[in-house]
Amino acid sequence: MKITRRGLLTKGTTLAGAAALVGTSAGNQPAMASSLIDDDVVYKRWEKSYSGGPLDIKPLAPGLPGEHYRPVIVPNGEAMPFRIVNGVKVFHITVGRVDHEFTPGLEADMWGYNGRINSSVIEAVEGEHIRIYVTNNLEVPTTIHWHGLFLPNGMDGVAGVTQPVIKPGQTFRYEWTLRQFGTFMYHAHYDTMTQEAMGLTGMFIVHPRHPDPDDQVDRDFVLLMNEYKLEVGTRKIDPNEMTDFNVLTLNGRSFPGTEPLVIKQNQRVRVRIGNLSAMDHHPFHIHGYRFKVTATDGERIPASAQWPETSVLVAVGQTREIEFIADAPGDWIAHCHMTHHTMTQMGHGLTNMIDMDIAGLTSQINNVIGGGYMPMGEKGMYDMAFMQMDMPENSRPMAGVPLQYGKGTMGGLFTIFKIREKLSSYKDPGWYKHPAGTVARIAEDAELRADGIKA
Ligand SMILES: [Cu+2]
User: Fold this and answer.
1) pLDDT of residue 154
2) 433 Cα–ligand 1 center, Å
3) What is the pTM of this model?
């Protein structure tokens, strides 16, 4: 029996229990009333849930920055250099050990791409042919998977399934023609749990060949979210951690080590956010603005279907593009809204001391152990911002970052959009100078009386 596409569609509808079924076809399958569904429309809807169509398309000329696309901005990172050889865009990725700084005072021995952690971005253009050489300078095998991209199966980078491993010292060659545009990622696909945990992830941006003028932005940022476990006072990442991550990062950096996103007032902004954390989805929240979710790693969303948000949840293995007009100047913070993800290291695993009267306890313990013990947290973590404490070497206190109006209690997956009326460069412009009378302040007695507030 010949199975037709219409037959399959109709059968699917039957299983769903649709009430719109009428009549019976020759094959004893209920048929759809032709006026209720247009076969071509249904087919078109599914046509794009595919793997890019024929592989043997003719590649277009390599796209060039400034000419075919406006380059992305990678805070704390960079777009990978490339060369063009006989009409092919050629990249070279070296995989190796990296002496990495998450934020001043917190370093770790990690594995990275091109000497960077999570922040070496591949930037390419739809339709061009790319060739990526991967040199493995680690002492263990690896491969790279190109996450979200349409490619020949043998280029998919899955050790054992689509290719042999890249042994230490070997250089492998990947190549294909890009048949899509959008925000994608790449990461190790051999001993993935260990290798991603050690830092082997990055973002892969493909610009459209024919950008829609309505989709152009002035500032196009790339942020990759990751999470790590680094015991206080050590330099060795724990790749076996499954739940209690204590270093949360954007492009491999934790606040205050995250470079701000500097924007001129009224510029149109895009932020491409990826998540290659081991275990956590992150709701990325921006203060003071609503934005639109304009693309997933599947596709750009049609304007009529883009939806407004103030937090966008980016699950592990997903990317999201968000866009907004930066009309309000200021220092607008942006961060994962899971509160433990905006702490650094020492917010975890502490004994709960909240509301305890610890004065007696402290002296008793010190009588036994000979002094030096200092319990904390009886008023929450804020006291750590103001205490002079001896911190273990290579660790970050969970609080105490100097900010414009005092010391803060934020760290981790946290950054700041610095939006300014005037800018002479996109270097960090420092703290926002708030216009007089626009900053929250202590209430005066006369004001309280006038408004009937008993404080
Ligand atoms: Cu988070």
Assistant:
1) 97
2) 30
3) 0.86
